[in-house]
Amino acid sequence: MGKVLAFVSGKGGTGKTSLCAGIATCLAAMGKRVLCVDLDVGLRNLDIALGMTEEAVLPFDCLMREECSSSALSDHPRIPNLYLLTAPVNTLPEEVDADAFCAMVLRERENFDFILLDAPAGIGVLFRLCINCASEVVVVTGGDKATLRDGARAAQMIGDKPARILVNRLDPKLFRRLGETVDDIMDEVSLPLLGLVPEDRNVPLSAYGGKPLVLCSRKGAASAVLRVSRRLCDLPAPLKRK
C-alpha cells in the first residue's frame, strides 16, 4: 500500500506547490508510481508546476464519485509513472465530501507508491481533509521568523500524525548572517527536518516555461528536491549538498 503525503503550509507564498511538483517528478523518475492531487479548489495551479497545462486533466471529484476509474487518469507527457488529478472549478471547499475523498485516496493507495496531496495554504477545511487522509504530513515553510511561526501553527493542527518540516527558499548567506541553525528551525516548529531547499531562480523560470524543475536544472533547488525525495523513500541522502 502506497504512502499518502500531505503538503501543507501555514500561509501562502512558501513554494509548497512547486516543491510538491518537484518531489513528485523525482519520485516518478526513481521508478515510483506517483499520483498528485491538487486540492486548492478555486485556485488550482499544480498543473503549471508539473508542466501539464496543455493536458486534459480530470478533476478529483470525478474519481471521488466513481464516475471514472484510475485507468482514465491523466499521465505526464514526458515523465512515466506520474499522474495528476486537478481541483474542480465550480466547487466550494465546504462542498467536498470528506468521507468520499478519503475513500478515494484509500482505493488509490493500492495503485500507487505515492499519493501527494497539495493542500491549500492556511488551516481551513481542505487542510484538515488532507491531514485526515495522509499517512505523513510535510509542512512547508521558509526560514524567516514570520513564516516559521505560521508553520508552527500548522504543525500544532496536525495532532499525532507523523510530520516533518521542509524549509524552502532558504538563503544560506543570510541564514548564517542571522546566526540561525537547523536546530533553531526544528525548535521553532517542533518537527523533525525533512530537507532544506535553497532560493533558486530556476524554480519560477521552469514554471513560466511549463517544464518541471528537474528537467530544467540539476543544481540548487533541483538537487535539494532530489535529496528530499530519496529521504522520503528511506534512502540515504544528506540534508545539504557536500
The chain-level mean pLDDT equals 87
Number of domains: 1
The low-confidence runs, each spanning 5 or more residues with pLDDT under 50, are none
CATH architecture: 3-Layer(aba) Sandwich
Query: Rg to the nearest angstrom?
Result: 17 Å
In which order are the strands of the major sheet placed? 3-4-2-5-1-6-7-8
Largest sheet: 8 strands, mixed
The backbone outline, from C-alpha atoms, is: globular
- Summed up, the helix count is 10
Give the N-terminus to C-terminus distance in angstroms.
34 Å
Number of strands: 8
CATH topology name: Rossmann fold
The CATH class is Alpha Beta
Which percent range fits the helix content? 25-40%
CATH homologous superfamily heading: P-loop containing nucleotide triphosphate hydrolases
Spell the H/E element sequence.
EHEHHEEHEHEHEHHEHH
Strand residue percentage: 15-25%
Structural class: alpha/beta
